[in-house]
Amino acid sequence: MIVPVEHVVILSLLLFLIGIMGVLFRRNAIIIFMSIELMLNAVNLCLIGFSRYYQSVDGQVFVFLVMTLAAAEVSVGLAIIVALYRNRQTINIDEINLMRG
Amino acid sequence: MTFLFYFVACLTIISALFVVLNRNPVYSAVMLVLCFFSIATLYLLLEAYFVAVLEIIIYAGAIMVLFLFVIMLLDLGREAALPKLKKLDKALSLFLVVIIFLGILTLTMWAGGDLHQTLNPSSVGDIKAVGKALFTDFLLPFEVASLLLLVALIGTVYLAKRRVK
Lengths: 101, 165
Prior knowledge:
heterodimer; A: Helix Hairpins; 3 helices; B: 6 helices
């Protein structure tokens, strides 16, 4: 194989941190969702790297399940965003304080 | 090949940064597609062919179409007028990100074992091996995943339905 698994882990760490930055810095709910997708992808990359490292197929099955979960999460989440926008005319998460969170 | 890996890795990081930093959600979505494609390339380079194809079909195909549809449905004129974060919030968030980065980096560096060695060639990533694992060892999680998709389907239809008062 071409690179040490360490470098894959560091790349996935950087991607995950970019995702965290997106969630923390942006107020747009859609961008926050995209950042969550980035974080899921970072975890997938890490799983693939280690699946490769340990010569085991289990990590790839995990990635398959994570992708299923991401698809389900995105469909429900975007439906919630559309419903919110219909009721509140905003997707700025600072203005969505119905539960006083 | 090694050069290609680092090149695509840089492309992934840059496009991910664009996703987060861009003010316009449409550009963010396009950059996210680029990011998914480069991650799929990374999977190919790591010899996970099945997952690479899945990444393109599910993420770059299905999920991004969903995102673009919702961006199109919602009014985007307000995005530019969104208020900026307070300075304290920004500083605290940055602090948290740096702490997590240093923590995980330290753990990776000091993990012991032989993470530094380059990986051996293998055939774990081909679709035959993955399919065999999915339908023998992981049959129950596979079925539960289908149930999860059904639940998501019903939930989405319920949420998107217009209430009749």
